[in-house]
Amino acid sequence: MTEISVIAVLEDPVRRRLYDYVAAQGSGVSRTEAAAATGIGRTLAAFHLDRLAEAGLVEVTFARPAGRSGPGAGRPAKLYRRATTEHQVSVPPRDYRAAAELLAEVVDVTGAEPELQRAARSRGAAAGRAARQQSLVLPDDDLVSNSLEAQGYQPYRDGGGMRLRNCPFHLLADRHPPLICGMNLALLEGLLSGASVTSLSARLDPRPGECCVVLEESKNNGD
Predict the structure, then answer these.
(1) Are 221 and 155 in contact (CB under 8 A)?
(2) CA–CA separation, 96 vs 80, rounded Å?
(3) What is the rounded CA–CA span in Å between residue 123 and residue 103?
(4) Architecture field, domain 3-82
(5) Residue 92 preceded by cis peptide, ω within 30
(6) What is the pLDDT of residues 172-220, one digit of tens each?
């Protein structure tokens, strides 16, 4: 399947709703769960989920329902979760990924991490100021969540803070973890600072399959 064909699979609005729902979950979801969440029938959900799987946009696993095991537990359920592969379409073809790889290698070799982090913090601060200007009355948590969502981080609540299901720089983070995780941290620290958000602070706390940065309640909040 070509990259354009893969992206075209999401043109169907029902299929896109299903993909968005699956991608936002932290674990595999069943056909029944996906159907209920998107307001469609289970058979239709199964059809579209399998099309997403054929395109490589979601991955399929099998597991028995929680608490059931041994004889009589029934067949394992088919579960779907967001695939870790990335897809990019450019017409005419452009290879920004290769350019990003080369730049990351140069920063690694030359020891320019501090300069990268300064630039990332500045970029994040500009995004934070813009978000604050556009949403003067929005609560801090909602403002930060909306800004992160727009940048592809897929934030979700975790206790009093936020975790990020997706790293927008996933491939680079896989190949240059300290470099890209440090950049991510600086970017999000800048975002909080630019938006004048003091109730949250950013720190590194890697989890498999998620962004390496977590936003948690600031220890000084409310003091």
Answers:
(1) no
(2) 30
(3) 17
(4) Orthogonal Bundle (1.10)
(5) yes
(6) 999 999 999 999 999 999 999 999 999 999 999 998 888 999 999 987 6
Higher per-residue pLDDT: 70 or 25: 25
Both tokens assigned to 154: 């897929």
Residue whose token pair is 């500009």: 126
- Coil vs helix vs strand at 167: coil
Evaluate whether the domain defined by 96-217 bears CATH number 3.30.160.
no
What pLDDT, in 10s, does the model give residues 71-126? 555 678 899 998 887 777 666 777 888 899 999 999 999 999 999 999 999 999 99
Residue 4 is encoded by which pair of tokens?
Answer: 């354009």
Nearest to 84 by CA among 215, 1, 173: 173
Q: What is the pTM of this model?
A: 0.73
CA atoms of 145 and 197, how far apart (whole Å): 12
Picking from 76, 45, 82, the residue whose alpha carbon sits closest to that of residue 62 is: 76
Q: Is 207 helix (H, G, I), strand (E, B) or coil?
A: coil
For the chain, give every domain's residue range.
3-82, 96-217
For residue 146, CA distances in Å to 152, 158, 163, 192, 213 come to: 10, 16, 13, 13, 17
